[in-house]
């Protein structure tokens, strides 16, 4: 197509002659710049995620998945796309947002970069259709792979924190619920279960929302007692199910493969069944009689000793455990305990939490267990 001369003002206000692109060339140049910018954005985001998988988690599978997608994106990053780049003339380089200036934790960093990659891939998928039909198809599939990677990685992080957690707070009804839980979190608690069977769903939902945010502010796992629907509604990390609650398989189908599911057990048969059905952890007890389980006889320290020798998944002794008897429970074989009144009714929840942890943290992991505890536990995930 024959081009015609035209005139424009340069940055100094001087009239200069320019030779414009045709309309199609101008459109293509814009598309090339969009593709170039988003290929950079997706590759950079994947590299940030890859570095944590490689150096933070020492996980070859996740690292390989990130690297593979980066290399696939690089194959689409052709010379004609790179040559369209105009960094100095790009108004987007000056745009920022306060949330981009800081990261509260590894988890927030990873989530931000997963969002970055997914948004970039959606742009690449749509504009790629104008550049090369195969690009749109390839990027659509890759975007789904990123969704799967995010789910797997966040699930992995969650389960690593479960393995790290030796003290489990199960809440009881109180007007100072948030205050007590935060005090325990300040003491080093990393695992909280919200349990209140005596309020209506509106109150339960509101409290669960607040507790979930509080726990995640302290990089702690948040579990809902019994209610899978509430867990989904507030995006909790999982649920704890009693023997009379829904089957683990049904809960797993609703929650997906990467949330945590716990099951209460009182004897060897229940323990074995929970393991077979796919529980991520079990509660073992009640060790002592407790008003939380009114009318239920204590399983005793004998059951704790049995589980210590026979359980292949993480487990928490629970029921009437307090600062006066925790060492008896530890001597029976417990390496993790769940506490209700011992913290919820304590005058100084932070100090009591620290005491429980000091007793539990001096126990070395049992090398005979079939599950493996990670050697690397980031303080903030």
UniProtKB/TrEMBL annotation:
- Residue ranges annotated as coiled coil are none
Species this protein is from: Fischerella thermalis JSC-11
Reactions catalysed, as given in the entry: 4-methyl-5-(2-phosphooxyethyl)-thiazole + 4-amino-2-methyl-5-(diphosphooxymethyl)pyrimidine + H(+) = thiamine phosphate + diphosphate; 2-(2-carboxy-4-methylthiazol-5-yl)ethyl phosphate + 4-amino-2-methyl-5-(diphosphooxymethyl)pyrimidine + 2 H(+) = thiamine phosphate + CO2 + diphosphate; 2-[(2R,5Z)-2-carboxy-4-methylthiazol-5(2H)-ylidene]ethyl phosphate + 4-amino-2-methyl-5-(diphosphooxymethyl)pyrimidine + 2 H(+) = thiamine phosphate + CO2 + diphosphate
Q: In the record, what terms sit under GO molecular function?
A: magnesium ion binding; thiamine-phosphate diphosphorylase activity
Enzyme type, top EC level: transferase
Record InterPro entries? Aldolase_TIM, ThiamineP_synth_sf, ThiamineP_synth_TenI, ThiD2, TMP_synthase, TMP_synthase_cyanobac_bac
**Its function?**
Condenses 4-methyl-5-(beta-hydroxyethyl)thiazole monophosphate (THZ-P) and 2-methyl-4-amino-5-hydroxymethyl pyrimidine pyrophosphate (HMP-PP) to form thiamine monophosphate (TMP).
Q: Where is the Thiamine phosphate synthase/TenI domain?
A: 167-343
What family does the database annotate?
Answer: Belongs to the thiamine-phosphate synthase family.
A Gene Ontology biological process in which this protein takes part is: thiamine biosynthetic process
Q: Where is this region: Thiamine-phosphate synthase?
A: 146-381
Residue positions annotated to bind 4-amino-2-methyl-5-(diphosphooxymethyl)pyrimidine are 193-197, 225, 264, 293
Tell me the segments the record calls region Unknown: 1-145
What is this protein's name?
Thiamine-phosphate synthase
Question: Any idea where the ThiD2 domain is?
Answer: 33-151
What are the record's GO terms for cellular component?
cytoplasm
Give residues annotated as binding Mg(2+): 226, 245
Quote the cofactor binding remark.
Binds 1 Mg(2+) ion per subunit.
In its keyword annotation, does this UniProt entry include Transcription regulation?
no
Q: Which gene name does the record give?
A: thiE
| Record key words, sorted | Magnesium, Metal-binding, Thiamine biosynthesis, Transferase
Domain of life, per UniProt, equals: Bacteria
Question: EC number(s)?
Answer: 2.5.1.3
- Keyword Ion transport included in the entry's annotation: no
Q: In which pathway does it act?
A: Cofactor biosynthesis; thiamine diphosphate biosynthesis; thiamine phosphate from 4-amino-2-methyl-5-diphosphomethylpyrimidine and 4-methyl-5-(2-phosphoethyl)-thiazole: step 1/1
């Amino acid at each position: 197509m024959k081009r015609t001369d035209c005139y424009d003002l340069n940055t100094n206000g001087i009239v200069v002659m320019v030779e414009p692109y045709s309309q199609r060339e101008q459109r293509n140049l814009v598309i090339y710049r969009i593709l170039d910018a988003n290929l950079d954005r997706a590759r950079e985001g994947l590299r940030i995620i890859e570095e944590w998988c490689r150096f933070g988690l020492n996980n070859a599978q996740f690292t390989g998945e990130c690297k593979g997608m980066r290399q696939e994106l690089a194959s689409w990053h052709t010379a004609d796309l790179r040559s369209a780049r105009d960094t100095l003339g790009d108004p987007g380089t000056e745009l920022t947002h306060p949330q981009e200036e800081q990261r509260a934790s590894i988890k927030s960093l990873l989530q931000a970069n997963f969002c970055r990659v997914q948004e970039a891939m959606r742009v690449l998928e749509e504009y790629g259709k104008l550049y090369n039909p195969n690009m749109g198809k390839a990027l659509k599939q890759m975007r789904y792979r990123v969704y799967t990677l995010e789910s797997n990685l966040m699930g992995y992080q969650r389960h690593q924190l479960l393995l790290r957690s030796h003290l489990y707070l199960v809440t009881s009804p109180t007007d100072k619920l948030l205050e007590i839980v935060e005090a325990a979190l300040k003491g080093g608690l990393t695992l909280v279960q919200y349990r209140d069977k005596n309020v209506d769903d509106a109150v339960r939902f509101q409290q669960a929302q607040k507790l979930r945010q509080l726990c995640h502010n302290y990089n702690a796992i948040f579990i809902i007692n019994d209610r899978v629907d509430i867990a989904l509604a507030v995006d909790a990390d999982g649920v704890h199910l009693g023997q009379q609650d829904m089957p683990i398989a049904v809960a797993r189908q609703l929650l997906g493969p990467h949330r945590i599911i716990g099951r209460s057990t009182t004897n060897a048969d229940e323990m074995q069944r929970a393991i077979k059905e796919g529980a991520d952890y079990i509660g073992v007890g009640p060790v002592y009689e407790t008003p939380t389980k009114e009318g239920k006889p204590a399983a005793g320290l004998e059951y704790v000793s049995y589980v210590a020798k026979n359980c292949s998944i993480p487990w928490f002794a629970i029921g009437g455990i307090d600062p006066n008897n925790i060492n008896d429970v530890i001597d029976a074989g417990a390496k993790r305990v769940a506490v209700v009144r011992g913290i919820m009714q304590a005058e100084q929840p932070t100090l009591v939490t620290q005491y429980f942890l000091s007793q539990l943290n001096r126990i070395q992991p049992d090398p005979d267990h079939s599950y493996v505890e990670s050697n690397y536990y980031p303080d903030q995930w």
